[in-house]
Amino acid sequence: MAFPLNQTNVEAAFVAACHAELQALKPGNVHVHSAGHGMDIHHFERAAAAAAPFIADPSLSVGGRILGAVKASFAETGLNANLGIVLLAAPLAAAAESRIGGADLRERLGRVLGGLDQADAADAFQAIVIANPAGLGRADQGDVNAAATVTLREAMALAADRDRIAKAYVTRFDDLFSLGLPALHAGRRAAANETLAITALHMTYLAEFPDSHIARKFGIDVAERIRGEARNAASLWHPAPRPETWNGLWALDKSLKDRGINPGTTADLVVATLFADMLIHQSATTKPL
Fold this sequence. Notes:
Structural class: mainly alpha
CATH topology: Triphosphoribosyl-dephospho-CoA protein
Number of domains: 1
Order of helices and strands: HHHHHHHHHHHHHHH
CATH architecture: Orthogonal Bundle
Mean pLDDT: 94
CATH superfamily: Triphosphoribosyl-dephospho-CoA protein
Distance between the termini: 11 Å
CATH class: Mainly Alpha
Helix content: 55-70%
């Protein structure tokens, strides 16, 4: 295997992951088959293109990558199109490009996360304020509206009990490596094509835990209810969607959108899983730098 990867490959993988996620039917989220929540796929495609050079810039810290990507995405779209994606992708990109570490992406990621400092937190806080995600609220400690007094990983630890992306920073992305990647690979073995495997990945995440974005916006009870709906619909998507289950997934997509429910954290995790999978694949097929 051949880590580190170069900037060009990491940037291309990020854009490809963002585009792949948009091609799949993902109930409740924006995709090529259906817009939603005042957005369509073009917002996300433009945001991905704007963010990519910062995500993959090896001269930037993780916080610098986050801030640069969010500023560029917001300037391009005027929307919070990809804050969660950026928060997950920046440390993955840094891990893939690092000249310190071995062949395992998760081990490399652990070193990156362990090295985050207060400056990373300050940059990430500024990015979050710019994006202004729904239901952000205030916090007694680690409030993004105040000056950073802890490292970025410490700040994420303070929010880990209520936010799945924050939790990723303190578990070395356990959801992604222990659930997401195995689900993606299982979906590919069962699905007729890649987009159906991505639908199965989306539904796996949605059924496994309450979506943080839904919880922030509507409360944990609603988020748990949506998780239950995803679990109850398992016959439609597990191990992968089939032609005869497509209409049922469409109906769930329409129902969630009619209720204004957007499982945004689930979509962020899908993109991050695809990105990690592409980085791992590239490391196995690319000559060392």
